[in-house]
């Protein structure tokens, strides 16, 4: 017989969902049969799988150890990464529930293929290396990122260290109670401030979107809103700070391009001639950075983030771009953001 105590990262879910994680190689029919026969019990009683687990609940498996291990399978090995590499990704905020990381451009937020190493894998490795997570916990819970950035977009990514952390951060994002600000360079000079409101439609069988001024006939189109303020204007480009009111795939990149101000370095929605010119400044991908997160009033486990503003400093690519632009003509005057925004 094996007895397992439900931990804080396992509570709050249905019992059958937990069992399918714990005995991941077992079929649903086998699990429900074991429940009916009381070979698997919850707090010493028969269960049907629909129960909601609580921290401290006791699950007993009246099965042979070899049977349990057979159905447990092998926990996926964690990636091997040197401590120096772990430390190279800045952690800008961390408490018992949540971690905010400054993702570098070029790193996937979540892996696209089995062999990829993404920020998700880094998060697990980071927590394991710091003794904040045990390998045996990975069979029923894995920490994960809560928001996604494109591979070549840098900046703030919210990571849930616990189930409660992941759920709360996902709730804030879903309910739009989290204010998200980005820094970017675009071709041309937009008005000092503005609000883009349009419709976004993701193309089938393609990782690309289209922007429409009016609602298209296709019911899959969703409304998107992006506000911007001009930080600096140069001879042939501008640096903006935008607030993302909705968070859809490629929203900023596609909307700015549709307004005639494509992101510099953006090979998908940008202008090739413009990109070619700015390669002299070392630009090889879109200059887009998740710069600041502003949290609402929070309490309890998340009081440390209450009304907190977290900033990811601009990457070196932005500094190089400014030096290049100032060397050409110098910035126009009077286009700085207020102290709060900057």
H and E order: EHHEEHHEEHEEHEEEEEHHEEH
Low-confidence runs (pLDDT<50, min 5 residues)? 75-81, 332-342
The averaged pLDDT comes out at: 89
Tell me the number of helical segments per DSSP (H or I, 4 or more residues long).
9
Percent of sequence in beta strands = 15-25%
Number of strands: 14
Query: Largest beta sheet, briefly?
Result: 11 strands, mixed
Measured as a percent range, the helix fraction is 10-25%
Determine the structural class based on helices, strands and strand pairing: alpha+beta
The rough form would be described as elongated
N→C terminal distance: 60 Å
The rounded Rg comes to 24 Å
Please describe what this structure looks like.
The chain is α+β, with helices and mostly antiparallel strands and 342 residues long. It has 9 helices and 14 strands. The strands form 2 sheets. Strands 4, 5, 6, 7, 8, 9, 10, 11, 12, 13 and 14 form an 11-stranded mixed sheet that branches. The chain has a 3-stranded antiparallel sheet with strand order 1-3-2. The longest helix has 13 residues, at 316-328. The protein is elongated. The termini are far apart. Mean pLDDT is 89; it is low at 75-81 and 332-342.
List keywords for this structure.
single chain; 342 residues; alpha+beta; eleven-stranded mixed sheet; 14 strands; 24% helix; 24% strand; disordered C terminus
Quick recap:
It is built from 9 helices and 14 strands.
Topology:
Blueprint: E1 2-5, H1 15-22, H2 28-36, E2 40-42, E3 58-61, H3 65-72, H4 83-87, E4 91-94, E5 98-103, H5 119-129, E6 144-145, E7 154-160, H6 163-174, E8 179-187, E9 193-202, E10 209-212, E11 222-233, E12 237-244, H7 251-258, H8 272-278, E13 288-294, E14 309-311, H9 316-328
